[in-house]
């Protein structure tokens, strides 16, 4: 039985197969409409989510399966003091697969150690968010036609943003990828990612503060929100929250075929005027998230469709 804790749990070849499957689902949704009839997905969300939870639920429903779960720790037995391990042992008796989001780094990993059903990490603290990464990879491959030889700018909260941490690890495995990290000093990408992933793999990267300085170089601009819930004090958040605001004036500096991505939710970091720019890909990204989660559920449940 397989779980998904990190995007690196899949080899590059397995990822290709998963993205191919997601592409087939996009083209022929009817072929998959009953592939999970009678199966159940549990969504165990100890932290707020709109997109990820609903995307998992839509994915399972599109496959003909059923869903149940909770959307906050307060509405689960965690409020009574139940451990994640006990909860997952119990959920294993009810469901065939589960997606877990938790504010503590490593909680889904703890669950997977005692679970008798596949566990999907749907975001653990500031650590990883592998299904957002699968979404991002499918978006990039669909819109840019490749995952290699790209210059990707990641902008905003690179310290706490788990989507950034997972995406960098995943893209670092493809040839010719260059990373440009755009952040204020306080929100730089963590040292362990620079050392263990980038320097260890001799992957080119640079760190800058001004988005305007690098805009013309980028094939992809990945914007992120400042992660308010991970700050130790509100004053720091208020000082940093509007550090970047992408607007049409800045977009004029970018390549004609650059794409703008964002895991969402957006706060102020992308002005709504940018939504009408054909290069804004963040809402299309949401749709790719459903296809890729359908492909992931089928893969982990070992459902094969001819
Ligand atoms: C992201 C997350 O939860 O890390 N949201 C999402 O799942 N699409 C990004 C964020 O909350 O900023």
Question: Mind explaining what this structure looks like?
Answer:
This protein has 306 residues and is an alpha/beta fold. It has ten helices and nine strands. The strands form two sheets. It has a five-stranded parallel β-sheet, with helices on one face. A four-stranded parallel β-sheet has the order 2-1-3-4, with helices on both faces. The radius of gyration is 19 Å and the shape is globular. The two termini are 22 Å apart. The mean pLDDT is 96. Bound molecules: N-carbamoyl-L-aspartate.
Secondary structure layout:
Layout (H helix, E strand, L loop, with lengths): L11 H16 L12 E6 L5 H12 L3 E5 L13 H11 L2 E6 L4 H8 L4 E6 L5 H15 L6 E5 L6 H10 L6 E5 L8 H9 L5 E4 L11 E4 L10 H7 L7 H4 L7 E3 L20 H19 L6
Parallel strand pairs: 1-2, 1-3, 3-4, 5-6, 5-8, 6-7, 8-9
Bound molecules: N-carbamoyl-L-aspartate.
N-carbamoyl-L-aspartate binds next to helix 2 and helix 6.
User: Could you give a short account of the major beta sheet?
Assistant: 5 strands, parallel
- Mean pLDDT reading: 96
- The number of helices is 10
Any idea what the radius of gyration is? 19 Å
């Amino acid at each position: 039985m397989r779980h998904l804790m990190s995007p690196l749990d899949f080899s590059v070849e397995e990822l290709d197969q998963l993205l191919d499957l997601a592409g087939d689902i996009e083209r022929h949704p009817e072929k998959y409409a009953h592939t999970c009839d009678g199966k159940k997905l549990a969504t165990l969300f100890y932290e707020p989510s709109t997109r990820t939870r609903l995307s998992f639920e839509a994915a399972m429903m599109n496959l003909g399966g059923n869903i149940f779960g909770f959307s906050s720790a307060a509405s689960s037995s965690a409020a009574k003091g139940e451990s994640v391990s006990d909860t997952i042992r119990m959920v294993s008796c009810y469901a065939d697969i589960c997606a877990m989001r938790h504010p503590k780094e490593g909680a889904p990993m703890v669950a997977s150690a005692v679970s008798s059903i596949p566990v999907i990490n749907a975001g653990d603290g500031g650590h990883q968010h592998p299904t957002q990464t699968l979404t991002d990879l499918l978006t990039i491959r669909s819109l840019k036609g490749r995952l290699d030889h790209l210059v990707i700018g990641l902008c905003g909260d690179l310290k706490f943003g788990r989507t950034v941490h997972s995406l960098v690890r995943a893209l670092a495995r493809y040839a010719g990828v260059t990373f440009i990290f755009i952040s204020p000093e306080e929100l730089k990408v963590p040292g362990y990612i620079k050392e263990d992933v980038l320097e260890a793999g001799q992957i080119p990267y640079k760190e800058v503060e001004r988005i305007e300085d690098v805009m013309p170089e980028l094939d992809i601009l990945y914007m992120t929100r400042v992660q308010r819930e991970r700050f130790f004090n509100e004053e720091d958040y208020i000082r940093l929250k509007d550090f970047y605001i992408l607007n049409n004036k800045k977009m004029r500096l970018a390549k004609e075929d650059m794409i703008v991505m964002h895991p969402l939710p957006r706060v102020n970091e992308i002005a709504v005027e940018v939504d009408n720019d054909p290069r804004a890909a963040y809402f299309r990204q949401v749709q790719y998230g459903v296809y890729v989660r359908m492909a992931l559920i089928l893969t982990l449940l070992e459902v094969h469709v001819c």
